[in-house]
Amino acid sequence: MRYKSSVKIRLYLNDKVALGPGKADLLDAIVQHGSISAAGRAMGMSYKRAWDLVNTMNECFTQPVVITAKGGSHGGGAEVTELGKLILTQYRQAQYDAERAVEQQLHSLSEQLKASFSESKN
Q1: Is the separation of the CB atoms in 58 and 16 below 8 Å?
Q2: Where are the chain's structural domains?
Q3: In this predicted model, what pLDDT tens digit does every residue of 18-56 receive, in sequence order?
Q4: 120 to each of 3, 36, 110, 117, how far by Cα in Å?
Q5: Which of 22, 71, 84, 114 is such that its CA lies 20 to 30 A from the CA of 28?
Q6: CATH class of 11-110
Q7: Digit-coded pLDDT (tens) for 84-112
């Protein structure tokens, strides 16, 4: 039997998700690609969706987590700020700690799973 489990952490400010798995991945992609649009493309999301996620993060934190430079002859770009890098590091550590904290419980729970599973069509 093979099983998989995951713990998803989301940090809310009022009704908005300030940081969660997708936004953390987007920050990583911005670091890697140097632009919001390239990061979005790499993640298979639209330019608008990537910008909306960045805007939400920037609105939720005390300082911007991503700053942008306007386009021009050399194009624009984006940079994850020091605060953005800090919250990304803290988020990834919290995710790791949470997964380790429930690892044994989830393993025990998984022992109650069927040996195999197949969906039947009605």
Answers
A1: no
A2: 11-110
A3: 999 999 999 999 999 999 999 999 999 999 999 999 999
A4: 20, 42, 22, 10
A5: 71
A6: mainly alpha
A7: 999 999 999 999 999 999 888 888 888 88
The answer to whether the beta carbons of residues 26 and 50 sit under 8 Å apart is yes
Question: Would you state the pLDDT for residue 117?
Answer: 65
Cα(107)–Cα(82) distance, integer angstroms: 37
CA angle 27, 29, 30 (to 5 degrees): 65
Q: Could you tell me the two tokens for 6?
A: 């995951």
**Integer Cα distance of 35 and 54 in angstroms:** 11
Q: Cβ atoms within 10 A of the Cβ of 20, count?
A: 18
